[in-house]
Amino acid sequence: MLSRQKLSCKREVIHSLFWGIACLLLSGRVEAQKDSFEGPPVNYLSHEVHDPVAILAKELSSGDAALEYDQKHGFLKSVLTALSIPESSQVLVFSKTSLQLQRISPRHPRAIYFNDDVYVGWCFHGDVIELASTDPEQGAIFYTLKQSDSSAPNLLRDRGQCLTCHASSRTQDVPGYLVRSVSPDKAGHPILGSGTFTTDHTSPFKNRWGGWYVTGSHGRMEHMGNQIFSDEKESNTQLLGQNRKSLEEFLDTSAYLTPHSDLVALMVLEHQTQMHNAITAANFETRQALAQSYDMNKLLEREEGFVSESAQRRMESVADQLLYHLFMCDEFQLQDPVSGTSDFAKDFSKRAKADSKGRSLRDFDLQTRLFKYPCSYLIYSPSFDRLPNKVLEIVVAKALRILKGEDASPKYSHLTEECRTAILEILIETKPMIREAVQQSISAR
To answer: Considering only CA atoms, which of 121, 139, 36 is closest in space to residue 76?
Structure first.
């Protein structure tokens, strides 16, 4: 008879093997996708990047910046300070679905902290801090920072390993981000065969946060968070997992920077990750489409700079997909108000670009939807501003048609006339690019 400890170890090995096989199968699909962005014109792995973590790495190398190490959290606090990431953004995930899976369990979840452009992952007694940072042109760039006080901190860029999971249909087929919901067992392993959900603003509440801890109020709506599942895919702790103000019954939160895994932070994270991916997808697809079109110009002796109908259709398509996320189309409608337990909402709103009426795209609703004005705050991001001009012009022109009520497509029906007007007024005052586009359209009449 095997002891319980040996059986547990055996299960760990079996689960790890299954996940390893799954990753190998996935990597075959990823390799085909990588060919499209590892080579010209994107050159994902070889092109110089200027994301916030790359900038910090250069500052550390030159001595213009330094990181402090403490025995409890390593470089974590110092990294968050250097990258302007609030501790209140902390969310906790206990499913074994990331790099340091042996360090993750329901008792010791992985903590994730984020701002508009950077995501930081920290594990209890982890070997490294994991970082993902958004480059304005190259999308998600992945790094690790060794948790050791015996040598100078060194941010190492990943050279493809992370893309096994972070470049697939779940990330819109580009190097990107995702929030997954799984059915975790008592060790944190996703139950094989139960399926997973990639969550964003459209996801039904009932499918969210499996394998995550969640603190906050959400009324009668139920989610998968704070729960352990059996092989029959049913939760053993469903009622215990809902409307939690504290996680004390599940783990010792004193090991973490805060005791929260804020519900509102999770909802923002879900929107933001896929919005980033949509911007990157528009960027990559446009560069590839134009490069192919320009190559054909040489072969067919067309004038330089001619854009083929095929390339134009490809840009129109990715522009539409970006606008789908920008205006949060098909957003899940909340049946009850929601609220978090930390200062996240307040800290998030501090970064608002408000108009003369005090309105901003960071204003929360939390009664029937996430934001009061459903237009993503990432329209202010460097990644949006640095989209190739050809597709940026299409996105801006289409956005103005939507906000002026000239595009009556059903997918934008959630934008009432009052809401469209408010969003447009906010953008005209706070986004010079939109203000200039509006002025040009008036002059062209």
So the answer is: 121
